[in-house]
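fyi for ur records
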Amino acid sequence: MPPNRTSFDASVGTAGTTTVLRLSGDLTDAEVPTLRTLVDRAVAEAARVGARRLVVDVHDLGAMVPAGLRCLAFTQQHLPPTTEIAVDGASEALRDALDRSRLTQSVTVITATVSAPASTA
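which gave:
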């Protein structure tokens, strides 16, 4: 039985000086052209508004093929050097892939830690 896959979806939006690229589902090789189109749109939108930050929201991303990482590298290469790129919500597997591809040298990886609520005993 093939693995359970979630369809890939992506969107681009802007809030102030931050452009957000949201990715969800499983990015397979078949969806890489869609991601590339959205990356081009995110770069253009960031340039249009003078964005200081591009956030790649991957909280709902299940899997990413290596070509998806190349798209992120492309993004970094085509933004002004003053624009920060942050990857928000990366799974451990994606963080490892970002490390192996050395993208962590040029992007900020945001990880949230969840702590247990304080006991009220």
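Helices lie at 32-49, 66-78, 92-100. thats all i got for now
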